[in-house]
Amino acid sequence: MMDRRQFAPATERNREPILSVLKTSLPDSGTVLEIASGSGEHAVFFAPVLRPLKWQPSNYDPEQLDNVEDWIAYQPSDNLLSPVSLDVTKPHWPVEKADYDGGAITAIFNANMIHISPWQTCEGLMAGARRILPVGGRLILYGPFKVNGEHTAPSNAKFESWLKSLDPSFAVRDIEVVSAEAKHNGLEHIATHPMPANNYIQIFEKS
Ligand SMILES: C[S@@+](CC[C@H](N)C(=O)[O-])C[C@H]1O[C@@H](n2cnc3c(N)ncnc32)[C@H](O)[C@@H]1O
Questions:
Q1: Residue 113 in contact with ligand 1 by CB distance below 6 A
Q2: Global confidence as pTM
Q3: Which CATH number goes with the domain that contains 151?
C-alpha cells in the first residue's frame, strides 16, 4: 500500500514546546478542532497525550487530508478522529452542530496558517471560532507574530520577505491586528507564550 505520510521537520522541533502549553491551556473534556493540520504530525503526537480530549484534524487541501489519514493509520489513537475537509474562509464549517458527530468542540488549535495564506483566513478563523466555541472556549494560535507592527527578530523579517515572494497577501501578522479581529468576533486575547525560534502561542477566549 502507498504511504502518503509527509514529514515537516519543524513539527518535530516545535511539538514538545507547543504540547507543554496545550496541557495547561486546553479544557478537560470535549473535542479539540485542529485547523490546517498540514502533514498530520502534530495531530498524531498531541492526541494520545491529551486524552480524554478528542482531537479532530482538518484541512482544505485534499492531498494533505490523505497525508493526515496515513499518519493516523500509522500511529492511531482511539481519541483521534478522521480528518475533515474544512476551508476556514467558508461561512459554514462541516463540524457545525447538526452535521457533526465528533462530540462538542470545546477548543480550536491552529498552527502556522494565518501568515502563509491571505488575511481572509484569519477573518474566517475568527468568525468560525465565534460560531463554534462555547462561552469560555479557547482558540490557540501558534506561529510568528509582529508586536506593535515590528518584527520580533531579524530572521522573521527575512521570513516575511520570502512569504511575500510567494504571494504578496502573505505576511507575518501583527498580534494587535489579529486581536482586534478576534475582539470583533467576541474573542478576548488572554495570553501570550513565547516559543522557541521566535514564535508564539497566542490564546483567545470566547466571552
Ligand atoms: C505551513 S502549513 C502548517 C501546517 C501545520 N499546521 C503545521 O504547523 O505544520 C499551512 C497550512 O494551512 C492550510 N490552509 C491554508 N489556507 C487554508 C484555508 N483556507 N482553510 C484551511 N486550511 C488552510 C494549508 O493547507 C496548510 O496545511
A1: yes
A2: 0.97
A3: 3.40.50.150
